[in-house]
Amino acid sequence: MDLWAAARLWGPPGLLLTLALHLALCLRSAQTSVPPPRDYCVLGAGPAGLQMAYFLQRAGRDYAVFERAPRPGSFFTRYPRHRQLISINKRHTGKANAEFNLRHDWNSLLSHDPRLLFRHYSRAYFPDAGDMVRYLGDFAQRLGLHVLYNTTITHVTLHKARQAWNGHYFILTDQMGHTHQCSVLLVATGLSVPNQVDFPGSEYVEGYESVSVDPEDFEGQNVLILGRGNSAFETAENILGVTNFIHMLSRSRVRLSWATHYVGDLRAINNGLLDTYQLKSLDGLLESDLTDLAIVKDREGKFHVTLKFFLEEGNQSADAVTLPQDDNDNFAMRVAYDRVIRCLGWNFDFSIFNKSLRLSSGGEFSKKYPLIKASYESKGSRGLFVLGTASHSVDYRKSAGGFIHGFRYTVRAVHRLLEHRHHGVAWPSTELPTSQLTSAIIRRVNEASGLYQMFSVLADVVLLKENATAFEYLEEFPVQMLAQLETITGRKARHGLFVIDMEYGRNFSGPDKDVFFYDRSVGHTEDAWRSNFLHPVVYYYRHLPTEQEVRFRPAGWALPRPTAIHHVVEDFLTDWTAPVGHILPLRRFLENCLDTDLRSFYAESCFLFALTHQKLPPFCQQGYLRAQGLVGTESLRRHGVESGLLRDYTTADRRREDGARSPLGGSRTPGPPVRPPESNKEEL
Amino acid sequence: MMSSSFNLFRVGISFVMMCIFCKSAVGSLSELSPQKYFSTLQPGKASLAYFCQADSPRNSVFLEELNEAVKPLQDYGISVAKVNCVKEETSRYCGKEKDLMKAYLFRGNIVLREFPPDTLFDVNAIVAHVLFALLFNEVKYISTLEDLQNIESALKGKASIAFSYVRAIGTPEHRAVMEAAFVYGTTYQFVLTTETALLESIGTEDIENEHLYFFHCKQVLDLTEQCRRTLMEPPLTTLNIHRFIKTMEAPLLTEVAEDPQQVSTVHLQLGLPLVFIVSQQATYEADRRTAEWVAWRLLGKAGVLLLLRDSSEVDIPQHANVVFRRAEEGVQVEFLVLHDVDLIISRVESNMHIEEIQEDEDEDMASPDMDIQDDEVAETVYRDRKRRLPLELTVELTEETFNTTVVASDSIVLFYAGWQAVSMAFLQSYIDLAIKLKGTSTMLLARVNCADWSDLCTKQKVTEFPVVKMYKEGKTPVSYTGMLGTEDLLKFIQLNRISCPVNITSVQEAEEYLNGELHKDLISYSSVSVLGLFSPNMTTVKEDFTEAGNCLKGYVITGIYSEEDVLILSNKYAATLPALLLARHKEGKIESIPLANSPAQDIVQIITNALLETFPEITVENLPIYLRLQKPLLILFSEGSINPQYKKAMLTLAKNKHLDSLTPCWLNLKNTPAGQGILQAYFDALPPLPLLVVVNLHSGGQVFAFPSDQAITEQNLLLWLKKLEAGLESHITVLPAQEWKPPLPAYDFLSMMDAAASHHPTRKDPECTKETDASEKDKKQEDKSAIRKEPIETLRIKHWNRSNWFKGGKSFRHDNKEL
């Protein structure tokens, strides 16, 4: 697994606890006096914990962060072992837009302070983990976040209390025996328990967390690495040049992140071994289920790979154990290894949580992650939220919710939810007239970083007002909770809604797909729905979908089947501002959903409409009629006349032309009939 | 826009006509008494009769559907009648209550089946059910795989089977199958199921769609052998099934020696291409095997022929081994070199694809192009994009420079977005303003591109574009709310040079203020100066007035005088304190308005109303202000300046309160050329100017014209207005009241996605069927005619229900066209 991109560890175990034990005994009496409940308790001062603390602090809430280590981000003091983060630190994008730039900044946390951007902490594209530690320290300190360091929470349980927000308090016990009562518990402890697979001989295996990082120690050795994630390849990369060969063994084929669009899969920066394997330089990749495996140690202390099945035959002496090559003399792993290293990722530490919290379901997947809803709230206990890397079950292998550049937004979404639930602060929104709808969407799809990073997980929502004359714009709502939007946000969705999401093409990515195929990009607006690269998708619903509809949505869909859908055609520069290529089709879609005309008009046109029609298009109603019409300049007018969209009355013959009066009156004909032969298409 | 509105219009008309047609056609459904009906029955002839009590309205929908079914059923020799159960003549088919009315199918006078009306929910269901009942032997309904296997083994060597799966009885697909069975039922055994499990068990992956398989059992001689199956790929419609079965009947492989261009087979008539496998004597056997293999693969998609090169008189290029001929007439045959059977197959299939695409293109051509910009602002800004604006005349602010700049000097800031057309159009006016003010203004003209400095704009509470704000030291920023044009913004900036209200300190100064000398340079921007007169002790109302003055700052000049000697002024202008004096500089008049204890908002209102003129020249800029009065407009259209006599007449009428229910105004066509467009909309043939009209904009939209042969005099006008009021004048036109609809449809990506996944079609939407009530059905009629005019895969919300029902508009529309 690839946790150093994002995760934090619940501190190095042991040491503090033993030191504190003595103290705890002395202070036992103190335990009886329980301090008044806090509103919010955050477990862990890693990126997610600090991010939550920031939002709570800004909102002026009563909170505390509990951190085992003496400083924030202790995971990064040890991991990744080889110290290079694989989250990119892009310092330049050629753009000034700070929100846009966060699309390419994978390390910064969200804050109002521009000094707290990671680019001020490292110049490296793949920065050193030490810089992350320094950054997190500064983040906590500069913003004055309320963190209780050196406080190890050893046990968490529930206490029923009618007056509590959720009908119960969370009781946290620290290493001193002190208890803390919390109305809401925010668990941001990351994944800290190395994943171990049990097989005969697993005791000979060294773990990623403890294996030497000094290449010298591997000089001239045969090495077997179990796992095929970034930690496995990172370990291999480090010793590639000094070993005899490295073999890597894993259950399934390697998944390359450039083929899957999932940053948790193998990143190109770590894949040196793939190169040497395919160029026949002795290194190799093998696929097999690790649970069938057994490792036996021979008299020289070398390790042999065999199958569990053979060991069960009863022959226990190491040299007598049947090896696969006895039957099958070209068995791939017939050589003896000097070392076997396990790099199998991490699991959530369930040990401190009382069963009554029902954090785990006991299923196979839930060994790794606690059981949560798409709102990041625990399925087992109300008021318990899981943040950060440990919340990645929501979008595992799909989006970026397990990494800083993803969960900084999901943490904000959780905070917005809490603000409404406990403090009556509705989800922030902007109310605008319909004439601004196209612009509001175009603005967000071009700069929003939350939509971009948490594609298909967080989406913007446009709630239409009665008669669709105005709308509310809500940002970064967890789409899987769409059915519960009204209760979560405190906003009403009675008159239809749009959901603005970013998506990759349905069948584009996958571990075995060729993502460089010819013709992979789509250029025509009418083919926009075939777009492969990340592109904005707008869903229109007449009614808020029900929970059923969200749950049983069509396979491969991020959202339930809408009344209508629009894809904004993919763009090589991710710049969706082309007037004809991007904005015009979007406007037509919105117009047809709202059954109105969303074009903009100069004041003169509105003037004409006002005196020749009983009703006006929204743009004239919301601008011109309020004496805020767009006057325009002479040169624009000339272009309008040339294009046929505006009529030049100064030279016009006053006699009426032939032909019937159109139902929309007047002779203003912006439609095609009067267009000159040349069209925009050719100009473009 | 115009064409689309025409469409709407036409749809409306055709809809109305259709209704008329329906009404009259209901009569064509023969209505008989029971006795009469039974007397018409002929032995061996089928007849569908609906028994009902005299006109119960609840069944009118059913009757409409039944009426529609008359024609198709007659085509199959089945008569349809509505039997009225009158009291005198009861029949056992007449139920006791209205609800129990049923339809019966007779052959001769024997009842074959009875149908509760709800099984016959629409015309498709009626035709499907009736044919299903009549073709009882020809169409076997089965529900298990075993049934199918039994039929299959019984028919081996005897007859082939057309096996179809439909989702339900009574669907359009079921009707299509039944209609096909009517024609082919004697030749082939039709087998029908609605069981998805059965479909699955014969190995169909996509079990959501309707399917038709042809089981080639007739050729099977060995009874242990399975019948070969061919799946029909196009959707189940009568025409497609017909076409499919025709190709099944055609010989699998034909040997020809003539010119491929001259060969004609049934395939070509059915619109399918021909594939010639070129053979030579030497390799004849192998070629024939290949050709047969290809023929099986292409069964139902193309005709396959074996072309003997040696005996052929045609010149076939040496290496060509396949000749491809498209179904369209006049298209040259193609000689191809294809070394793989799959290549031949894909050639045919891709060709089918091309055909479809080309059809799309043709339709696109005929309809307005959705990719052509029809937004005048976007288009003009785009066309102007290459012109370099002297942007340097305004200061570009960034996140770093913004705060220091607006603190250092009074600034006007334009917030815009580089990609947003409206704000870019306004940026041009803003630059024009900068050119005008160059070097003269103390106000700094600045701009922020929110596409770059998004956070800054959010912090300044800018959520839409464009926004103009004025920043003055120590004051909260003020948003500009006037017209987005050079002149109005210039006025705002100029009037903001003075603090409003201006504090006047002496009577002499007050006089100068009132006669315009005090702000000589400004009165061109504000034709009215307002002076508030207060006694020094009137603190509350003074505060309110000050607030109001602040509010109107930038739009009108206000001043305040509250010295001890204020009585000198109040006496002179006959005002009771507190009061407002309005100095209209153009007319040189000074009026006074008493000011009761009004809150600031009311004072603002009083002042804004006072700014309105009695008989203004209406312009693009000031029309909105006058429209707020919500009164009909009395407009005098004038070529150039107004004739003083007309003006005098109008003012007199106004003075005598004859025009209180109207907003009188005049329009100078020289200043406001758009007035030409207005006149063209009002008059079919334009009479000579001047023209006087009353436009009832807010209630009804009628336009009345003052007779152009009458002189515009006070008396004539008064008389005309009286007649107008009494309803004795008829209007010359009524302004259209339509809502502004989308000018063009949008791409219907949902349908395109459905079509692409047509083997995994959209889930059934149960609501759609429920919604098919009477009114919905009317809408359908309307839609049908509209749909044909629009390009494929475009979207209008009102069609969505329908296209859901037909699961992917594309296939549906193809059928439609062919039928």
UniProtKB/TrEMBL annotation, chain A:
Gene3D superfamilies: FAD/NAD(P)-binding domain. Keywords: Endoplasmic reticulum, FAD, Flavoprotein, Glycoprotein, Oxidoreductase, Signal. GO terms for biological process: ERAD pathway. One of its GO terms (cellular component) is endoplasmic reticulum lumen. Residues 650-660 have a biased composition (Basic and acidic residues). Residues 647-684 are annotated as: Disordered. Pfam families: Pyr_redox_3. InterPro entries: Auxin_biosynth/cation_transpt, FAD/NAD-bd_sf. GO terms for molecular function: flavin adenine dinucleotide binding; monooxygenase activity. Residues 1-32 form the signal peptide. Its cofactor is FAD. Interacts with SEL1L. May interact with OS9 and DNAJC10. Interacts with TXNDC16. Belongs to the FOXRED2 family. Probable flavoprotein which may function in endoplasmic reticulum associated degradation (ERAD). May bind non-native proteins in the endoplasmic reticulum and target them to the ubiquitination machinery for subsequent degradation. This is FAD-dependent oxidoreductase domain-containing protein 2. It comes from Neovison vison (American mink).
Automatic annotation (TrEMBL), chain B:
Residues 1-27 form the signal peptide. Gene3D superfamilies: Glutaredoxin. Residues 29-131 form the TXNDC16 N-terminal domain. Residues 252-342 form the TXNDC16 third thioredoxin-like domain. It comes from the Eukaryota. Pfam families: Thioredoxin (PF00085), Thioredoxin_6 (PF13848), TXNDC16_2nd (PF24509), TXNDC16_3rd (PF24510), TXNDC16_N (PF24508). GO terms for cellular component: endoplasmic reticulum lumen. The keyword Cell cycle does not apply. This is Thioredoxin domain containing 16. Transmembrane segments: none annotated. It comes from Neovison vison. Residues 758-790 are annotated as: Disordered.
